[in-house]
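Title: [Solved] Sortase 3D structure

Original question kept below for reference.
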Amino acid sequence: MAKVSKRYKIIFSIRFFGYLLIIGGLISFTFMLGPLGVAEVKYRTDKVLGVKRTVANVVPTPVPSNNEATPNTKINDQAEKEALKNKQSFSSNQIVPVSTEFGIVIEKINANARVIPAVNPGNEKEYSLALQEGVAEALGSTPPGQPGNLYIFSHSTDAPWNIVRYNAIFYLLRELEKGDRIVIFYANKRFDYVVFEKLVASPTDVSYLKNRYDIPVLTLQTCDPPGTLLNRLIVRARLVSS
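Solution (posted by the thread starter after getting help):
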């Protein structure tokens, strides 16, 4: 009986730790892919139900004076609250921008995020911190509405699990096509861009970052395939109204 009992304990211990590893792996997998799964389900559900999302017409926040916060400093939290205080009055199909100081809304894929300004895309530590708060505007970008290249990106290389998490906002960029609208809010003004090109580029190809144009162009970048570092998905759009 003693031998049987000992054998039973060994088998039980092996099974227990095996199940523990499996459950831990599933939890980790869900944590990593959860944001992408939620984005995918929402997008597919909207498509099946024919839901068309639009940007809510929010009341702009007061434009900061010279000694107050601007898009190149920290977000004015009080102003943000004032801009969104009537959020409950909007319909469920309307997207209320999380920031009118500097934000991006893509109606087709229900993307809505702050844009963190002047982030060095070559400094992993810097952009990893920025991408915890939203998406990043590449250092040296042209301000919205002005001729040149406004470059906004969302990717991370500090750890595999963060590659997925930080890509969640731009995860569905692959669904954009020519003619789709991208809305940028900057200094409490709205700028509408329309997509004219989508392509996949090598991670070493920085020409789309360095390009300068004589018209206002918006360039969005994320990883492709989502959650990997193999390639870069580039979406370019031109300004149509402001």
